[in-house]
């Protein structure tokens, strides 16, 4: 049975010690579909704080919907990208520590087969554009996967195939085009081509279907893929038009010939090519879209490096360019990654993050935020015949040193072998709630819109069970942002009660730092206090009611081993994370209260709740924003303001009432001026008055930008949202400068009665900032210098002062339904 505040919860998957961490973000629930007239408005208004100055910090980047705008901030998310050893990546990301004798023998037979060598040779032929290499690579990869399945060393349970993309992807604002994608054959091919894999087909029908698939996967998809279709991706860059393969030495040639496949194996492979509806089952090399260039010589492949059972590879992966490269050996192993694409202007980038790195990270970001609920993304980058693997998580990313998959085909096959054996969770997809694209053929009709029905089923009901509760999955109302951070999803759920009534709930899924206390810890502390002090039960009207709280282990990969600091003196390392799910009642944003009296009443409720939390249970919220001030309609018909989202909250130690942080906390338009300054060189103390300052920004934001529950056209105060933290800090300081001729934003028609309150409140902050500056510059009077209290700005910023200000503008009683104790009939 649910309690008034925190109701029954499912047993957590694991137990974790919790502690502080500030690099988190969260977007809370919003209004029902009927009131969500402008989805972009919510993407603009609701956002929380990640660790540095990455994409999630600057929601204006996504509002622009331009890749270059997003990439300007994405470079910060790559600041601490790590370079790792390829074998280490294979072990921890692809879960291959050694191979059985049979697995190794099969992979070597494929690598040395004439069919595979012909495909490699075709890939190396001269081309004029990088697009001309896509089909060749797809045929190489799919041929190898097909052979592995035929030989029985992999089941390829997900039906992994490579598919040319080279097309924009549906389901996000920005236009990004990964060159080749790893997809599930049954979803991305069968549905688009009208092939039913369960149909009984004769040999001729199988042959025709195989041909259809073989032609389809080497072309851009029609219609477009969606981000939810992909398991991974590969990006290609053209450096040399003709790829020169390394010559075999006599010793190596002899070694390579010993693994040649028998005629029987070849016959089996050729037969499978026509009998199984897969792309590269064909043993024939794909026709080249570009003719061979004059002077291109056919050379034989170099024998692969060994990855033997029970011992590591005997031939280390070269970090430089292959000896056959036209450019010779590079002085830097990472030059090919850092060099911008041809005919592109290099970024002026002190962080040395290239356009290529940003491009790859952009694909990962879209998959993390708009494709599925993911913990990580695996990608790959190809420069001609060289390949590197990439991994992106919510804490850090890494890339391997490059190696030549042309001259080391065995290593390449080991990688493909690992990819075919990955489960959905090992690909990074949370199998608790997968996107519809992985269960049915369905494409997103809107190319530049977010897919709110990402987890719905076309013809039926999608159920989700959490603990003892089963829900119907409805629309996504908030998508994650950025590359680093919590990556929080907010999804509407419906529950059919025993009475038959339907109730709406909100699921929030976040990939949170293990060291960070879950938000339900703070709500549990309130429950415990109220249980011991029944007279304080009223506070539960102003906090969210929780139904389910659950932790899900992210044990699909040993992230720490791959992304850890490795003794870095700066302490930069992987931040261990866990997926946390919390289900709570649906709440509504405070700006839907466009009757001034009701809005002011709910706003005051939230301020009083904030004060109560600080004084009674020593909780400082630290993320006062327009998305976290909500309201509910009580069973008694009253409106109650609700303070929501405690992901950034901290327990305030009595001996140290002002927690400090090296990361900014809060949502940029509502962050206090003090907290917008550089937090790296000097830790920032987050004080109670900083939250009170944020309350002012929310008040001004709502009454100046909203009318009838929706943002007006060309709303003011946009300069609080765009630019760097320092730029926003400067603009806010200008806003408070006393200037009788300066025009400041005025309330909309709905909120005109609150004009006086806004003016007086702004004037209070003007005086407080003026006195603070004079004290800092030692220009204040000796008396003020001696008594000035920094935490209350000389006594100007306190709860009591705010209540006195609000009391100057009493509520119009006809606008108020009632107080917590119920309505007074004489006033209704």
From TrEMBL:
Gene3D superfamilies: Transferase(Phosphotransferase) domain 1 (1.10.510.10). This is Fungal-type protein kinase domain-containing protein. Residues 1-30, 249-344 are annotated as: Disordered. Residues 350-527, 574-702 form the Fungal-type protein kinase domain. It comes from the Eukaryota. The lineage of its organism: Eukaryota, Fungi, Dikarya, Basidiomycota, Agaricomycotina. InterPro entries: Kinase-like_dom_sf (IPR011009), Pkinase_fungal (IPR040976). Residues 1-12, 277-286 have a biased composition (Polar residues). Pfam families: Pkinase_fungal. It comes from Paramarasmius palmivorus.
